Amino acid sequence: MLVTQRRNAAPPGNMSTARTAYEGAGNTHRRPNPSTLSRSVRAVPKHTHTHVETWNPIPGWEGYYEVSDAGRVRSVSRSITRDNGRPYTVGVRVLTQYSTKSGHRCVKLYRDGEGTPYGVHRLVIAAFIGPCPAGMEVCHDNGDATDNRLSNLRYDTRAANIRDSVRHGTNHWANKTHCPRGHALEAPNLVPSTLKAGGRTCLACSRAQSYVKYHKHLKPEFKQIADSYHHSITEV
Ligand SMILES: [Zn+2]
Questions:
Q1: If you measure from the C-alpha of residue 228 to the centroid of ligand 1, how many angstroms do you get, rounded to a whole number?
Q2: Among residues 145, 131, 139, 177, which one has the least CA distance to residue 161?
């Protein structure tokens, strides 16, 4: 379900001109009324009366975890059986998020004792909009990778995401510390031929690019392939 958020509290359509003018003048001298404050200027809303945080099940984790349009993840209350055979009820709990090197917020989701890390932005958009179309990725409209409100997320192309990050001045590629995939640009993860020319190209992504060039059906898997190349390159 998509929740439409009102940027500003718009006056009702049948409001008289006089009243609108009065309100307009009044507003400039009044402290902003919290109930009419734009959601975009708020921190993550916790318990507000003006905006109800909407929770959706996380696809593939139904009955275990939910994610909200404010970018929070919680476990769902459920009964589990302990090793000693005793039933035990797990309560609703909002998960603690941690940050990756690339600045993204992550959570670990657990099933059968095994934890899997997920980017919160991916969970939010998957639960409220749907799966990521092939060749696209999650983009943060305002360039803040920690702002995972649904209203700040969209699916777009890699190229658009890079354009965004250049515009927001957060392009890791331009800063030359990490490639756009978040791989550290340091030996041995550098393409030797570009190094001579003064360039710093991510070896993992470069290998993944050649790989998907000859395995076109694996293109949607590019990220995972690049990450696994990066893992094997940096593995001691
Ligand atoms: Zn890379």
A1: 10
A2: 139
Q: Is the pLDDT of residue 233 over 80?
A: yes
Please report, for the domain that includes residue 159, its CATH number.
3.90.75.20
Can you tell me the distance from the alpha carbon of 106 to that of 109, in angstroms, rounded to the nearest whole number?
10
My answer on whether 213 and 107 are in the same domain is no
Structure confidence by residue, pLDDT tens digits, 171-195: 544 556 888 888 988 889 988 877 6
CB 182 within 8 A of CB 100: yes
Model-level pTM? 0.51
**Total of domains in the chain:** 2
**68-93 residue pLDDT tens:** 999 999 999 988 788 898 888 878 99
Domain around 201: 173-236
Neighbours of ion ligand 1 (CB under 5 A): 179, 181, 183, 202, 204-205
